[in-house]
Design goal:
Elements lengths: L1 E7 L2 E2 L6 E2 L2 H16 L6 E6 L3 H5 L2 E3 L4 E3 L4 E6 L13 H8 L1 H12 L2 E2 L4 E8 L2 E4 L2 E4 L4 H5 L10 E5 L3 H17 L5 E10 L2 E8 L13 E2 L2 H9 L8 E2 L12
Parallel strand pairs: 1-4, 1-7, 8-14
Antiparallel strand pairs: 2-3, 5-6, 6-7, 9-10, 9-11, 9-13, 11-12, 13-14, 15-16
Helix pairs in contact: 1-7
Length: 259
């Protein structure tokens, strides 16, 4: 049996494993469970795990390779949906998660080694990194909320809403693709769905941070992109092929940015 650990930064009900947290986290977990049901792999089952419990669970399992093999021969596939993992916890994608968690350090690395401006970003470029290379999704942006509200979003009480696609002119599109490609190469990123958070300073790209999983903005892809970003992440984690990303008929209310 394949047991998929959906690791979240939240309390988890010990009886039914329900997430006790924000609606956003619950939506992310629900979207991944839906992806697992739509694209089944063997007898995979989802288990929601609190990041705070990982160290306690560590001693019960043997970790190695892409999968984790437990003592009862159940294979465990780790799918963290948070960067806030215990520093003592070792898992196959630990290096990329640590690099993404160090926002200041990663910004400085991008500035020094890639030559891009750094600062706060309000757009997200989805990059589905498959074993054969990257697939770029349409950009995601904020819906209804203002930039000032987003700056205060470190408060968990602010519930942001996102929209996809954000239309960018071809020149800007190619520049953000180039940044994403160089960044993932620099970090030797493994297959997964990534979100590159960015903005523009005039015509220049301004890098903010990198998410190594379909974070909250990826919710905008549900019902909009096929396959959605959670399904893409599931494909990457289970080595299933992906060949294209497509936008389904657009919602006329989607944001645009054609500069």
């Amino acid at each position: 049996m394949l047991e998929v650990w959906l690791v979240v930064e939240a309390e988890v009900n010990a009886i039914d494993k329900a997430v006790v947290s924000s609606p956003t986290t619950s939506a992310m977990v629900g979207a991944l469970k839906e992806a697992m049901a739509t694209y089944p792999v063997r007898s995979a089952v989802a288990r929601v795990v609190s990041s705070g419990d990982l160290d306690n669970l560590y001693s019960s399992y043997l970790y190695g390779g892409n999968l984790v093999e437990s003592q009862d021969e159940t294979e465990i596939l780790l799918c963290p949906l948070t960067l806030n993992l215990p520093t003592t916890f070792s898992f196959p994608h630990q290096e990329i998660y640590q690099a993404c968690r160090d926002v200041v350090g990663l910004r400085q690395q991008v500035l020094r080694q890639l030559g891009y401006a750094i600062g706060d970003g309000y757009f997200w470029l989805p990059v589905v990194l498959t074993g054969k290379g990257p697939l770029y999704g349409e950009a995601i942006g904020l819906r209804e909320q203002t930039t000032d509200e987003f700056r205060r979003s470190s408060s968990s009480t602010l519930c942001l809403s996102y929209s996809q696609p954000i239309h960018l002119c071809d020149a800007k599109r190619q520049r953000i693709y180039k940044l994403a490609h160089r960044l993932l190469q620099l970090l030797a990123a493994p297959p997964a769905t990534y979100l590159v958070q960015f903005s523009f300073q005039g015509e220049d790209i301004c890098f903010d941070r990198l998410w190594p999983f379909p974070a909250a903005p990826a919710i905008a892809s549900l019902g909009v992109q096929s396959p959605d970003l959670f399904a893409c992440h599931w494909h990457c984690l289970t080595d299933r092929p992906l060949f294209d990303l497509a936008i389904v008929p657009l919602n006329p209310g989607n944001l645009t940015n054609d500069n």
